[in-house]
TrEMBL record, chain A:
<dbReference type="GO" id="GO:0001669">
    <property type="term" value="C:acrosomal vesicle"/>
</dbReference>
<dbReference type="GO" id="GO:0016192">
    <property type="term" value="P:vesicle-mediated transport"/>
</dbReference>
<dbReference type="InterPro" id="IPR027417">
    <property type="entry name" value="P-loop_NTPase"/>
</dbReference>
<keyword id="KW-0547">Nucleotide-binding</keyword>
<keyword id="KW-0449">Lipoprotein</keyword>
<comment type="similarity">
    <text>Belongs to the small GTPase superfamily. Rab family.</text>
</comment>
<dbReference type="GO" id="GO:0000139">
    <property type="term" value="C:Golgi membrane"/>
</dbReference>
<dbReference type="GO" id="GO:0005789">
    <property type="term" value="C:endoplasmic reticulum membrane"/>
</dbReference>
<dbReference type="InterPro" id="IPR005225">
    <property type="entry name" value="Small_GTP-bd"/>
</dbReference>
From TrEMBL, chain B:
<comment type="similarity">
    <text>Belongs to the FAM114 family.</text>
</comment>
<feature type="region of interest" description="Disordered">
    <location>
        <begin position="1"/>
        <end position="76"/>
    </location>
</feature>
<feature type="compositionally biased region" description="Acidic residues">
    <location>
        <begin position="26"/>
        <end position="35"/>
    </location>
</feature>
<protein>
    <submittedName>
        <fullName>Protein FAM114A2</fullName>
    </submittedName>
</protein>
<keyword id="KW-0597">Phosphoprotein</keyword>
<feature type="compositionally biased region" description="Basic and acidic residues">
    <location>
        <begin position="1"/>
        <end position="25"/>
    </location>
</feature>
<dbReference type="InterPro" id="IPR007998">
    <property type="entry name" value="DUF719"/>
</dbReference>
<dbReference type="Pfam" id="PF05334">
    <property type="entry name" value="DUF719"/>
</dbReference>
<feature type="compositionally biased region" description="Polar residues">
    <location>
        <begin position="65"/>
        <end position="76"/>
    </location>
</feature>
């Protein structure tokens, strides 16, 4: 129950790339081949451990459909991490990445950690996007990259946890102002007192980055 | 879930204020101050600062500075001032109405338990103080720690507040818990009679949103449970944690986001209009707002015996009037399983009673049996059910908001949707009230052999959370107003463009 931090994540990307399946695999460890279309946003939460610290991930799984785009944008705010997902068997979902990225950068905070995910890696025979292409795109835009399969659970755990590690790293470096909830990070009840003093120090070190 | 997508509809139909919204986005989140404040142990309803003008008022302020004549702007300002005010008061007024039903039950329950009735307490603030003194003395006496009678009201209050802080953690005497609840109701009654005070309640306050208050309460609770792992039952039955577990908090937060965004869009549209157009829109928005006033709420305690099917049919019927491509299945399921729970407990208790008699006949002790169904178990499932039903209700409101904004065929007027939603709110609150009564009955049945100071706080806790649940649902309902307002404006715009 008790956690040191809470990170808010968003999952974005074209419809049908497997966003909801990734979430289900991560939170419930199961795969559901047929999924209802997501209306607006759905939620999932799970506790993970990083460097001995309990971290709660609160995940906002957004609707991928174009017609929902203006609504889902409203949900971006206050996310610490984003999983930007495409389908390796559908070239168009890869081609739309730039738009998604622009959207995400525009409607959320600049420090947000973005993980690029090429999903459905189990469907090697139908692959349309090479792994190297994904890697190149990620490198060009400063993202972390991974290929996953929500079906076989390959790399799913890693995708969510590596994003959290990156965020955690940024907190340690003082990039994130954890006292500002707009960054999608909240200090949990565990060691709240010690973290509060830590946060205070960080706030002091940050030049002009303070809140309030 | 069967869904028909209407891709043909332009998604950006309601984005005339994209830049305006960006400016909003750029604002630093004003939550830090709130976060720093010590969160209250008991949840409070959000309070708005009376001095803070509503968004609509601000928009009008800008208008007023325009070239229109002073008199005209005076009346206009007054009109809109009223608009904002009554909007603020809507929530609290309805809460009092809904709370009424519950406090009636409380009255019945508590009198049978020998606790002063809320009506005795609510007549005047002074009376409350006196009663407090008496009740607190009573409870103190129970705790074998007699309080000197010289102690004034001030000392009394601190005693009470200390007790309130410990509610649930320590088993304090039941009358103190009841007092907390009655005090809350009393505040509602006082608020009802005082239009000025009304303004201090409501949900339009941007500095402390409903989800924030709930989250703080939850965090506070987590903090507490982190240090006191031993209180396992307490943790199990904590409303805030359960509400979060059912994703109620997330849906509420998401709904708030949509509401806030819609509100700023409405504001910017108002900012672009003038003269007759503005007056017309004002009248239309006013009409929408009236549909949100829940005026038709009636407390039909007698009718409540009508079962299941009724709620299901009613909710489905109302939902179909919304014309949104989702179904309230989850909500109905949550409600039905809650009903099942209240029933199971009766059966089990009855069975237990029978068995106990048998056992006594064959000379077996009944200590073992008593453990089978404890009052704590009933209490836990009651709180859990309330949290789940509330979370599902808020999810339904959130989904409705998303789909309304999604801009499906506007075959239904925003005002009709508002009416259906307000009726739905009433049905949900009525359901919560009847659910809490049923759970209280089960608790009383399960706890016949418990001491009053064990049973009473549990019963009061169920009523308290049911009352809070009703408040959350009504506040969430109010968040839909800006959503329907902007949806109405869009529909109008489309109409004129055709």
């Amino acid at each position: 129950m008790a956690y040191a931090y809470l990170f808010k994540y968003i999952i974005i990307g074209d419809t049908g790339v497997g966003k909801s399946c990734l979430l289900l695999q991560f939170t419930d460890k199961r795969f559901q081949p047929v999924h209802d279309l997501t209306i607006g946003v759905e939620f999932g939460a799970r506790m993970i451990t990083i460097e001995g610290k309990q971290i709660k991930l609160q995940i906002w799984d957004t609707a991928g459909q174009e017609s929902f785009r203006s609504i889902t944008r409203s949900y971006y705010r206050g996310a610490a991490g984003a999983l930007l997902v495409y389908d390796i068997t559908r070239r168009d979902t890869f081609n739309h990445l730039t738009t998604w990225l622009e959207d995400a950068r525009q409607h959320s905070n600049s420090n947000m950690v973005i993980m690029l995910i090429g999903n459905k890696s189990d469907l090697e025979s139908r692959r349309e996007v090479k792994k190297e292409e994904g890697e190149a795109f990620a490198q060009e835009h400063g993202l972390i990259f991974m290929e996953t399969s929500a079906k076989t659970a390959s790399n799913v755990e890693e995708a969510f946890i590596n994003t959290a590690k990156e965020i955690y790293q940024k907190i340690q470096e003082g990039v994130f102002d954890i006292n500002n909830e707009a960054n999608g990070i909240k200090i949990g009840p565990q060691h709240a007192a010690t973290n509060a003093t830590l946060a205070g120090n960080q706030g002091g070190q940050q030049a002009g980055g303070g809140c309030c | 879930m069967s869904r028909k997508e209407n891709k043909s509809l332009k998604e950006d139909t309601y984005a005339p204020s994209e830049s305006d919204q960006k400016a909003e986005d750029a604002e630093p989140a004003d939550t830090d101050g709130v976060e720093a404040e010590p969160a209250p142990m008991t949840r409070k309803r959000p309070e708005s600062k009376p001095s803070e003008p509503s968004v609509a008022q601000e928009a009008l302020m800008q208008k007023v500075q325009g070239p229109s004549s002073t008199e005209e702007s005076q009346t206009r300002w007054g009109y809109w001032g009223n608009w904002g005010k009554s909007l603020l008061s809507t929530a609290s007024a309805t809460v009092a109405t809904v709370g009424h039903g519950i406090s009636n039950v409380i009255e019945k329950t508590e009198t049978s338990l020998g606790i002063p009735s809320p009506s005795e307490l609510s007549s005047e603030a002074k009376d409350v103080t006196e009663e407090c003194q008496i009740s607190a003395n009573d409870s103190k006496r129970d705790a074998e720690n007699p309080l000197p009678s010289i102690t004034g009201a001030f000392g009394m209050f601190s005693t009470i507040s200390a007790a309130v802080q410990n509610t649930g953690k320590t088993v304090i005497s039941g009358s103190l818990d009841a007092l907390e609840f009655i005090g809350k109701k009393t505040m509602d009654v006082i608020a009802e009679g005082d239009p000025g005070f009304k303004k201090t309640k409501g949900l339009m306050n941007r500095n402390s949103t409903l989800s924030q208050i709930l989250r703080e309460a939850k965090e506070k609770e987590e903090q507490r449970t982190a240090t006191e792992v031993s209180m396992a039952t307490e943790k199990r039955a904590h409303y805030g944690l359960l509400f979060d577990e059912f994703q109620g908090l997330a849906h509420l937060e998401a709904l708030e986001m949509l509401s806030r965004e819609s509100e700023s869009k409405v504001k910017s549209v108002i900012g672009t209009l003038s003269g007759a157009e503005l007056d017309a829109l004002k009248a239309e928005l006013e009409q929408l707002k009236e549909a949100f006033s829940l005026a038709e709420f009636y407390d039909d305690e007698e009718e409540e015996k009508e079962e299941y099917e009724d709620f299901t049919r009613e909710i489905r019927g109302l939902f179909s009037q919304l014309y949104v491509s989702t179904k309230p299945d989850k909500l109905i399921q949550a409600r039905n399983s809650a009903c099942e729970l209240t029933k199971n407990h009766t059966d089990q208790t009855a069975k237990e009673e029978r068995q106990k008699e048998e056992d006594l006949q064959v000379g077996l002790g009944d200590a073992e049996l008593e453990e089978k169904i404890s009052v704590e178990d009933v209490h836990t499932s009651a709180i859990r059910s309330l949290a789940e039903l509330t979370a599902c209700s808020i999810e339904v409101f959130h989904k409705t908001a998303a789909l309304v904004l999604h801009g499906q065929e506007q075959e239904v007027l925003a005002v009709d949707r508002a009416k259906a939603l307000s009726q739905m709110t009433i049905v949900l609150c009525r359901e919560l009230s009847s659910l809490s009564k049923n759970f209280a009955t089960r608790l009383t049945a399960a706890g016949v052999e418990e001491k009053a100071d064990v049973l009473n706080p549990l019963i009061t806790g169920v009523f308290l959370e049911a009352s809070n649940s009703a408040s959350y649902i009504q506040d969430a309902f109010q968040l839909l107003l800006p959503v329907l307002q902007i949806s109405h404006i869009q529909a109008q715009t489309e109409l004129t463009q055709q």
